[in-house]
Amino acid sequence: MKRTEVFTDDLDKFCCPNKSCSQYGIRGAKNISVRDTYGPHHTRLLWCRSCNKRFSERRGTIFFDARLPQDKIVSIVEHVVEGNGMRKTSRLLKVGKDTVCRYTQLAGEHSEKLHEELVAFSPTDRRDSIRREVGLRAKEAKKLQRKQSR
Ligand SMILES: [Zn+2]
Fold this sequence. Notes:
about 150 residues; single chain; binds zinc ion; mainly alpha; about 10% strand; Arc Repressor Mutant, subunit A; 4 helices; 3 strands
């Protein structure tokens, strides 16, 4: 039996999805490892050493339990992001309109969760430093305008 090589360099990106686990939601805690692979694309089955639960590397993404190939799903989202409507995307990619709507909905929900996570970890006084920088740049722009008008 031919054994495929399993990629493990990106495990710090994953965290335990089990809410009752002590490592829940903590990335880079070194509690996640690859337990097995499954499916035609060798999707990794990850394992949390803390709670002993297994989960798909695709859990929480739009690719989890998907019937379409990953590149087709990415293409659907790209078409919608570029401003194509559901019907137009459906015709261009030869998939059902409901399929386009479903993946667009899933992508939106995933993006919202990701946004909330990233906002939660952003520095608290960031707005002040940005305001300061915008103010300084405005002063520099006025100086440049004065020099150019002479
Ligand atoms: Zn866990």
